[in-house]
Structures are given as structure tokens and as C-alpha cells.
Design brief:
Length: 181
């Protein structure tokens, strides 16, 4: 009996020691920050969706804006700037599933950054663009691209607003990571 009462006292002492250890308080997100993140993500997403909707109805025939800029509708079955474009259904499906997997990983990464009280504007820009492009892949069988920049015979691959958000967001994430190191 003495051993069991000694064990009980030891367990009680250990639990008292653990409860007396102060844990850092978990900071709650302010409503302003949540609203800012929501507006940022939604703005990028909606602007891209509206631009693509307009492009579908207007740029079936290419529109020359100036010597450097043309709006020309294409459906990209690859990734940004037409890389890995393929008419093969299996490859397109594989690429789409890979992109969805990367989006899931980025969502987890964004959540961890949020828990660490880091700003997530860059991650949200990438997510807004990537999710919009995945919607295109599912609904239209390819991403709606329509912005064509060219100078003489030199031509940049045709892109969209989501691509711009993705590239700038990734650049921003890399910049933040570089500055943390």
C-alpha cells in the first residue's frame, strides 16, 4: 500500500509541475487581418475569373492592342507559359492531379505560416491563381490564356492574370525566405 500511495503522490507532484509551466498564449487573428486575407484572395480570384469570362466571349478573334500587346484566346493544357502542353488525356489528367496535390501542400504550408503569425499574402496569391486555373482545367479542358506580349518576332508565351499572381506570389515567398535566412 505504501508503494501505491507514493506513486500517487509522485504523479500528483508531476501533474502540478506541468500545470505550473506557463505556455505561450496563442494569438488569435484579428478580424481586420482575416478580412484583409479574404479580400486579397477573393480579389485575385474574381478578377482572374472575370477576365477569363470576358476573354472567352471577346478574344475568339485576336485583338491587337498595340505593337507589344495582343489579346488572343488559347486553351493551355500544360502549366504556366504552355510548358508540358499535351493533347494526351492521360498526361493532362496526371498533370491536373499533380497540380491539385501541390495546391493541397501549399494550403498546409499556408496554414502553418498563419499559425506562426506570418503574413500569408504571397501564399494566397499563388492559391487564388492556381485554384482558378484548376477550375479552367476541369470546366474547359485547359487553362484559359489570353495575354500575349511580343516584340517583333520575339514572343512571350501567352498567359493570364492567374499566372501573374502565381509567379509574383512564388517570387514573394522566395524573397521572404531569403530575407529570413
Amino acid at each position: 500500500m505504501k508503494q501505491s500511495s507514493i506513486k500517487q503522490v509522485s504523479v500528483k507532484q508531476a501533474s502540478l509541475k506541468q500545470s505550473s509551466v506557463k505556455q505561450a498564449p496563442v494569438k488569435q487573428l484579428s478580424i481586420k487581418k482575416v478580412l484583409a486575407y479574404f479580400l486579397w484572395f477573393t480579389s485575385i480570384f474574381v478578377i482572374d475569373r472575370l477576365a477569363k469570362f470576358y476573354a472567352l466571349r471577346t478574344f475568339v478573334v485576336p485583338h491587337d492592342i498595340c505593337e507589344l500587346l495582343q489579346f488572343k484566346l488559347v486553351f493551355n493544357r500544360g502549366i504556366s507559359w504552355g510548358m508540358f502542353h499535351s493533347e494526351n488525356a492521360f498526361f493532362f489528367t496526371f498533370l491536373t492531379l499533380l497540380i491539385v496535390s501541390i495546391i493541397c501542400v501549399l494550403i498546409v504550408f499556408t496554414y502553418k505560416c498563419l499559425q506562426e503569425q506570418k503574413a500569408i499574402f504571397a501564399q494566397l496569391a499563388v492559391l487564388a491563381g492556381a485554384i482558378s486555373n484548376v477550375i479552367d482545367r476541369i470546366v474547359y479542358g485547359g487553362v484559359i490564356d489570353f495575354i500575349h506580349v511580343h516584340i517583333g518576332s520575339w514572343s512571350w508565351p501567352i498567359f493570364n492574370i492567374a499566372d501573374v499572381a502565381i509567379v509574383l506570389g512564388i517570387g514573394w515567398i522566395l524573397w521572404e525566405h531569403y530575407n529570413e535566412s
